[in-house]
Amino acid sequence: MDSELLLFGERLLQVRKRRKVSQEELAKKIGVHAPVIGRYERGEVKPSIETAARMANALDASLDYLTGLVDQELDREAVRQISELQTLKPEDQEHILRTLAALIREAKTRQAFGNK
């Protein structure tokens, strides 16, 4: 069986369960029959890109995460902020990203030393 199908199916199942959405609920939201969701989750069939996008949207998940392009599941707010950042002038983007990197380093240092 194709490892891409298994990865998609496993991630679909994980996200669906985390969101506490049944196969039936997801199927209804995207306009397919419930058994089809099970076939996607088991890696038996591959959804079209449109169906995969509808599933990602219905589960408030990243299509990139479901398909294995990224390993971190980004929440919608983080994606929205990144998209907004990309609309700014390059020098503003650079300044914001440097500031963000410094804040992340500081948070990791606090975390490493047990300070919250």
From TrEMBL:
Coiled coil: none annotated. It holds the Pfam family HTH_3. Residues 12-66 form the HTH cro/C1-type domain. Keywords: DNA-binding. GO terms for molecular function: DNA binding. InterPro entries: Cro/C1-type_HTH, Lambda_DNA-bd_dom_sf, RstR. SMART domains: HTH_XRE. This is Helix-turn-helix domain-containing protein. It comes from Hufsiella ginkgonis.
